[in-house]
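Reply to dn_fold:

You asked what the input looked like. This is it:
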Amino acid sequence: MVRPRSMKVGFVPNVPRSDPHYGSYVAKLHDSLLKKALKGQKYLKLYSYHYLINGFAVLVTPAQASRLSGRKEVANVVLDYSVRTATTYTPQFLGLPQGAWPLEGGFDSAGEGIVIGFIDTGIDPTHPSFSDILDNNAYPVPQHFSGICEVTRDFPSGSCNRKLVGARHFAASA
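and this is what came back:
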């Protein structure tokens, strides 16, 4: 992932973040930086990020990454890599069965009413952690929720429920 330096160094979008075209403007600035830095070379830009950070994901050679990191407009270049998560052991690792869960009604109701806003490692909708048994769950999907449930090969229609209320797929950078 490449994160451009503070937007004060010749990379200033003169468009307020509230402007509906802000995202496309930032993406064009990212494209311009890549064209200048990697003149005529092959690369594949996967995403432009503009909500939480100003940056982009791009497939490049080590030499190209070095060239990008040497640019004054670039704050840093980070190698992306895949990791395998094991969420099955997370409750024990965090000490939840002995700590927070008993204080909040025990294992059976732990986490009820909580909306997780950001998961970046991927979701297996068939995992028991995301099951939604109507009889045991009185919480509806929050009315203020405005996300989507994107259907993919690994995330079929019907995967979202009142416990897993939305998901997006960004596999091109994985």
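The chain has a mean pLDDT of 77.
Hope that clears it up.
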